[in-house]
Amino acid sequence: MTHGFRRLPPPKSLLAFEASARNLSFTEAAKELNVTRVAVSRQVKQLEAHLGFELFVRGRSSIKLTRTGGRLSRAVNQGFQSIIDQIDAIEHTKEDSLVTIATTAGVSTYWLMPNIGRYRRINPKADFRLLVSHDLVNLVQSDVDIAIRYGPGTWPGTSSILLQRQQILPLCSHSFFSKFGPFETIDDLAGVPLLEFESAHDPSSIWINYFRDKGSVLGNHTRMSSYDSYINLVQAVLDGQGVGLLGSPLMTQFLDSGVLMVAVATEPLQQHGYYLCQPEGSSSSRTVTDFRDWLRSELSVAADPLDEVRAS
Q1: Does the pTM exceed 0.70?
Q2: Whether the Cβ atoms of residue 36 and residue 64 lie closer than 8 Å to each other
């Protein structure tokens, strides 16, 4: 990236060229930039020397763009317009109305975004900046107001409040169940395609461990597909490609709507929890505080006070 920036011409010459190309006049460009005509002409010539080709055909009292100059003019104009658009967007986004949230793609897609949509109807003035990453985002360095993290709830420098614990079950689509089911026991699943998230945080989200935790053994001849993306895993289950170890709270919407179903009747396995996190000791705007409190009331379930953790 640094090497690319080194190839850029001097910014002053680009400004002089853009104004000259837009006005098709060095004189008008000079007025606009509040410099002399000679200065504009000199900057354009420096740009041409830097690039190695002519940008204008110069007449006695007029100029016109060469074909190459026209191409560059369009590119420079688009670049400057993009900068202006971003400045306008930033100016219209008030910091005291902005909530920066960090979480994973799965949480964002299946849990957070639907709730943000509901909250926008309650408080249309709130704006959101979403940082989606499978890696653990540094809340302070990334200027994060709120994070939803999955794990044990103990992260240094972070105050964490439990929202819900994940509970997994063997889930599948109705079309898959109609084709391969019904299943009487966990052992019956060993004969159908199984899907798993290879980056799963909990060991019990891996099929061989799930069978073990359920008091069974997964054979060596089971058809198995794995995904390094949680969203791809969910999509494969939705498409009827196999059975996945999924559950609440992320899959609640699909279970409630009947899009997904439990493949075999069994008790859910409780895993780690989803925590509402903030940088320890941070001060929040009223917008952040209101959204945090609303999110906690909407997403959390009755929890033991010991589940509220403040990491040191």
Answers
A1: no
A2: no
